[in-house]
């Protein structure tokens, strides 16, 4: 076994452990965005698509490179955008119209 | 270690990868609270962008390890990236929040597919050069098998969630045998590929793994799809990590392992919430499929006497309550009634009534899905309570308003001997009075009568969730005046 492979294995195992630690503390409220967020992280496979493009040198490899790039880009771009869209909606208070109504009594109180 | 220094560019790229790995971990860390979650996701996205850009620079520089990119391959890469990004962007922007689980499942499918394809391309090149070692062929086979299973399995899961494939468990004569055979072909073929590499055999393994993915998910009921999607998400992570071993790329190994671990934890938590083991879910055959989409109002109860009420009565009950707990289920999402629900909650809150939303871990179609739907309807997240927090609150609640939830409120789960025995439920029956809005008296996924409906404290408003809530809303407004 090469030194390179061994250090890669060490990375793999340690990253698994970090994953268990970080994820197990996330509240159920955020499970869907979290799953979607983790889903976009494995879109890092786009890096792999770029690396194989560097070694592709026959028609089949070109087609496969195209497929890998398309799949990976869809995963990573779609994943992050949709996660952001979900998280954007989580608000501690209702949006402006209602927030103004909430704020009004306090201002009255201050004026008195 | 050889101690040989890396070229400067390689060193820089690796430093960028390290930074990206840190943003992924910190990003997930920030997702532990709704207040910082969005920042976490943006941080993770910027790390991702840096890692991808660094790799592009490496490709353009064409260092000794990878050679200079052939123009046609560059075009294929660029075209693929553009097409994929547009597809992802359009999907992510257009999707309705109720269809979120399907979309995540599709993104997961293509991620697994990409990981498998990356391994195939590198395998063919190394095999052509006669440069394959076990250190590469083992992760190639693992990557191809896991990636292909995930690809086809996630697409079937998305089809079931969307209703394109029946949500009921699908089995045909010999389906068990077929899935065992396809798994055996994939495993044995994989071992042979490692022992004596051959490209055509690798393609056989790919096809067998694709077939197994389909056959694995088909017999699993629609209600269990969230667990399946979550498990397949973990699979993709592992496939990507394996692809990282194949192309010797550290950021892919780290990110893949992170996702593999997170998916495994989530899958476990969801299975626990349903009181079932992951194994029994994957063996399949549970539930009757998508009762909501079926939606026939004719299905009558057997021997359950229910008390019906009109929307006006419910409105009075709510308007003069001190504490109301709303229990949303998938029926709410299916009827697109989250906005009406949020408005009603807001109206009651403005009136000084304490309002909570009781969210069961498996409400909706994936863990936390219901929270996303309610957040979309502007419900403030401090009002969203998880099962353990909200259960003691039912004792003192004047009204529990159940909207389109079924099995997760069925007291039968506390007794042994039925399909949902032992499943943790919301203690809705402990409330002083209960109102259930439901389109019909049909069954939930588990195919059981809900004993809650026969409770003398319960009144039923038989209506579509959206119309029912709109009527109640109008009623409360007229009393509040």
Brief overview:
The complex is a heterodimer of chains A (about 110) and B (about 475). With about 110 residues, chain A is an all-alpha fold.
Notable features of this structure?
heterodimer; A: 112 residues; mainly alpha; 0% strand; B: 481 residues; alpha/beta; Rossmann fold; 6-stranded parallel β-sheet; 17 helices; 59% helix; elongated
- CA(first)-CA(last) distance of chain B: 79 Å
- Tally the helices of chain B: what do you get? 17
Tell me the series of helices and strands of chain B, N- to C-terminal.
HHHHHHHHHHHHEHHEHEHEEEH
The outline of chain A comes out as flat
- Total beta strand runs of chain A: 0
Strand arrangement across the biggest beta sheet of chain B: 3-2-1-4-5-6
Q: What is the makeup of the main sheet of chain B?
A: 6 strands, parallel
The tally of strands of chain B reads 6
Which series of helices and strands of chain A comes N to C? Answer: HHHHH
Measured by DSSP, the beta-strand proportion of chain B falls in 5-15%
Shape of chain B: elongated
Give the structural class of chain B.
alpha/beta
End-to-end separation of chain A in angstroms reads 79 Å
- Rounded mean pLDDT of chain A is 81
What is the tally of helical segments of chain A?
5
* Low-pLDDT segments of chain A: 96-112
Main sheet summary of chain A: none
The structural domain count of chain A equals: 1
Nearest-integer average pLDDT of chain B: 86
Largest interface, with counts of residues having CB < 8 Å to the other chain, equals:
A-B, 89 and 125 residues
Strand content of chain A: under 5%
Question: How does this model look, in words?
Answer:
The complex is a heterodimer of chains A (about 110) and B (about 475). Helices cover about 80% and strands about 0% of the residues of chain A. Chain A is mostly helical. Chain A has one domain (about 30-110). In chain A, helix 2 (about 30-40) packs antiparallel against helix 4 (about 60-90) and helix 3 runs antiparallel to helix 4. Chain A is flat and about 55 Å long. The N and C termini of chain A lie far apart (about 80 Å). Residues about 95-110 of chain A have low confidence and may be disordered. By secondary structure, chain B is of the alpha/beta class. Chain B has two domains: about 95-290, no CATH class; about 295-480, TPP-binding domain (Rossmann fold). Chain B is built from 17 helices and six strands. Chain B has helices at about 10-30, 35-60, 70-95, 100-130, 135-160, 175-195, 200-215, 225-245, 250-275, 280-285, 290-295, 310-320, 330-335, 340-350, 370-375, 385-390, 465-480, and strands at about 325-330, 355-360, 385, 400-405, 435-440, 460. A six-stranded parallel beta sheet of chain B has the order 3-2-1-4-5-6. In chain B, helix 1 packs antiparallel against helix 2 and helix 6 packs antiparallel against helix 7 (about 200-215). At the A-B interface, helix 1, helix 2, helix 3 and helix 4 of A face helix 1, helix 2, helix 3, helix 4 and helix 8 of B.
């Amino acid at each position: 076994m090469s030194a390179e492979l061994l250090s890669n294995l060490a990375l793999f195992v340690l990253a698994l452990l970090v994953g268990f630690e970080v994820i197990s503390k996330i509240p159920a409220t955020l499970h869907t965005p979290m799953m979607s967020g983790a889903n976009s992280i494995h879109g890092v496979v786009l890096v792999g698509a770029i690396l194989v493009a560097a070694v592709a040198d026959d028609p089949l490899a070109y087609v496969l490179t195209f497929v890998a790039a398309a799949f990976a880009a869809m995963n990573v771009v779609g994943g992050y955008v949709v996660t952001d869209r979900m998280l954007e909606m989580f608000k501690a208070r209702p949006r402006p119209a209602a927030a103004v109504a909430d704020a009004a009594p306090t201002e009255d109180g201050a004026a008195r | 270690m050889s101690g040989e220094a890396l070229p400067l560019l390689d060193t820089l790229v690796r430093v960028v990868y390290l930074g990206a790995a840190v943003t992924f971990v910190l990003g997930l860390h920030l997702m532990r609270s709704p207040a910082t979650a969005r920042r976490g996701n943006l941080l993770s996205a910027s790390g991702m962008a840096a890692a991808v850009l660094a790799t592009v620079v490496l490709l353009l520089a064409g260092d000794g390890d990878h050679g200079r990119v052939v123009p046609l391959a560059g075009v294929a890469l660029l075209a693929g990236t553009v097409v994929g990004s547009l597809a992802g962007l359009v999907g992510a922007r257009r999707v309705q929040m109720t269809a979120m689980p399907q979309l995540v499942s599709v993104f997961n499918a293509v991620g697994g597919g990409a990981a498998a394809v990356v391994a195939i391309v590198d395998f063919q090149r190394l095999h052509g050069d006669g440069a394959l070692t076990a250190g590469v062929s083992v992760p190639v086979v693992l990557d191809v098998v896991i990636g292909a299973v995930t690809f086809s399995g996630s697409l079937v899961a998305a089809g079931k969630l969307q209703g394109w494939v029946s949500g009921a468990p699908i089995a045909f004569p010999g389906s068990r045998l077929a899935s065992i055979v396809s798994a055996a072909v994939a495993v044995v073929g994989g071992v042979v590929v490692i022992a004596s590499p051959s490209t055509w055999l690798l393609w056989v393994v790919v096809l067998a793994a694709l077939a197994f993915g389909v056959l694995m998910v088909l017999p699993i009921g629609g209600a269990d799809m969230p667990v399946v999607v979550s498990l397949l998400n973990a699979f993709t992570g592992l496939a990507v990590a394996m692809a990282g071993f194949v192309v010797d790329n550290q950021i892919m190994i780290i990110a893949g392992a992170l996702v593999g671990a997170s998916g495994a934890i989530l899958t476990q938590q969801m299975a626990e919430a349903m009181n079932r083991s992951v194994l029994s879910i994957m063996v399949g055959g549970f539930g009757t499929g998508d009762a909501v989409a079926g939606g026939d109002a004719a299905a009558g109860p057997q021997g359950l006497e229910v008390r019906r009420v009109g929307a006006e009565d419910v409105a009075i009950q709510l308007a003069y309550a001190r504490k109301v707990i709303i229990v949303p289920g998938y029926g709410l999402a299916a009827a697109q009634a989250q906005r009406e629900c949020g408005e009603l909650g807001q109206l009651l809150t403005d009136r000084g009534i304490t309002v909570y939303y009781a969210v069961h871990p498996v409400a909706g179609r994936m863990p936390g899905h219901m929270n996303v739907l309610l957040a979309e309807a502007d419900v403030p997240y401090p009002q969203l309570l998880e099962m353990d927090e909200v259960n003691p609150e039912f004792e003192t609640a004047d009204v529990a308003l159940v909207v389109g939830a079924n099995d997760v409120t069925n007291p039968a789960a506390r007794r042994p001997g039925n399909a949902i025995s032992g499943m943790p439920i919301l203690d809705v029956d402990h409330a002083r009075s209960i109102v259930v809005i439901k389109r019909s008296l049909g069954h939930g996924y588990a195919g059981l009568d809900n004993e809650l409906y026969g409770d003398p404290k319960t009144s039923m408003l038989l209506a579509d969730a959206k119309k029912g809530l709109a009527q109640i809303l109008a009623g409360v407004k007229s009393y509040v005046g």
